[in-house]
Write a structure and sequence with these properties.
Strands 2-3-1-4 form a 4-stranded mixed beta sheet, with helices on both faces. By secondary structure, the protein is of the alpha/beta class. It contains 6 helices and 4 strands; from the N terminus they run E-H-H-E-E-H-E-H-H-H.
Length: 147
């Protein structure tokens, strides 16, 4: 199965949660996580492959700005319209408190120094909410196992 974690961006908190889910990162590694905050990857609109979990599920992230619920419903509906097996794709919106701060990542121009500022904001949010994000891991695992 493919699991698509969606959020405002696919390279900030959702990216971090995906790596936490796979066990490839901990709280302190956020500052060393390759591709974290790389908006050029996010702005392609293509899902970002993160890795495979212990059960063979492929984990992806996708930035959808403020349209998490709409994108989830659209993807679920497309599976039905095309008579595809719904068990092949699980779309999970990943919330974070203060995610409106991440909108800054799209508002701030793409210069390197300003991108560093938006990444710093995202890292502060993640560290501030680390426990909440960590608690999501069990919920993600439950949703995958019960899908």
């Amino acid at each position: 199965m493919k699991v698509l974690l969606i959020g405002n961006t696919g390279v900030h908190h959702v990216f971090f949660v995906a790596h936490m889910f796979l066990g490839t990162i901990d709280k302190e590694d956020i500052f060393n996580l390759s591709s974290f905050g790389d908006l050029s990857i996010d702005k392609t609109g293509y899902p970002i492959y993160i890795g495979v979990d212990d059960n063979g599920n492929e984990i992806y992230t996708l930035g959808v700005r403020n349209d998490k619920d709409l994108v989830k419903k659209s993807l679920d509906d497309l599976l039905e319209i095309f008579s595809l097996d719904k068990r092949e794709l699980l779309v999970l919106p990943i919330p974070i408190k203060g995610e409106w701060f991440l909108k800054i990542a799209y508002i701030i121009p793409s210069s390197r120094s300003l991108n560093l500022i938006s990444n710093l904001i995202a890292k502060i949010l993640i560290k501030w909410q680390y426990q909440d994000l960590n608690n999501l891991i069990d919920k993600i695992r439950d949703k995958i196992n019960n899908y």
